Design the sequence.
């Protein structure tokens, strides 16, 4: 198992996990660390020249920059944009937890820091009787929760932290992510981070500002934002 790494989950779909993952990976790589990315399962994949391709895997590979090919980052790729269990069953397939753990070990070998990005939130079904929470427990990494800063995110964030804590999964902290410019709920947007920090009693690792669409695949831009707005030193110090 690696000495350093994180399991990155989100409050829900669309929280910006891949954007935050890419920002962290590229920032740490630019600091001189050998980093690797792992996306256990990606759904909603497309076919290019007869080959199934995961868009998140492509972005993570670009950010990791360690010779990882996009095809090496996920253990499973599925076509349907659905929970891993559902997407797998739509193709008559099943997801094997042992495959997920074994692939992690191979990816983590020989690097300084590994970032595992989950599909969806903690309670998303991966296989029968097996959720993302169970995978996080199996991998044993400190978990970072990406919180989409929007109206209602406080409840989602606190529930996620409660599940992690009750499951005995180490919590590294949370990262706020400004997924849109919500001018209709200015007070909520301005106070979400502070309230979550007060009630969750976990580390506040910073907040990613809103990133325009044109910059979301620019890993250099994302890394610069991570250096300015996230507590990367705290992530590196995790055991």
Sequence:
């Amino acid at each position: 198992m690696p000495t350093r790494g994180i399991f990155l989950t989100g409050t829900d779909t669309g929280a910006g996990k891949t954007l935050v993952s890419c920002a962290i990976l590229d920032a740490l790589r630019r600091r001189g660390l050998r980093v690797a990315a792992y996306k256990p399962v990606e759904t909603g994949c497309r076919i290019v020249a007869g080959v199934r391709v995961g868009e998140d895997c492509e972005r993570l590979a670009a950010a990791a920059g360690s010779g990882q090919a996009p095809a090496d980052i996920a253990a499973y790729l599925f076509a349907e944009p659905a929970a891993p269990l559902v997407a797998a069953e739509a193709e008559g397939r099943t997801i094997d937890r042992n495959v997920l753990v074994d692939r992690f070990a191979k990816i983590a070998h020989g690097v300084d820091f590994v970032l595992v990005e989950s599909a969806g939130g903690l309670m998303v079904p991966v296989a029968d009787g097996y959720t993302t929470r169970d995978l996080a427990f199996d991998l044993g990494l400190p978990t970072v929760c990406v919180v989409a800063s929007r109206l209602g995110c406080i409840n989602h964030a606190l529930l996620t932290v409660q599940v992690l804590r009750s499951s005995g999964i180490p919590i590294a902290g949370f990262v706020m992510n400004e997924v849109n410019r919500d001018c209709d709920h200015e007070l909520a947007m301005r106070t979400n981070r502070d309230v979550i920090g007060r009630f969750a009693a976990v580390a506040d690792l910073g907040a990613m500002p809103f990133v325009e669409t044109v910059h979301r695949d620019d890993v250099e831009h994302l890394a610069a934002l991570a250096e300015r707005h996230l507590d990367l030193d705290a992530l590196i110090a995790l055991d």
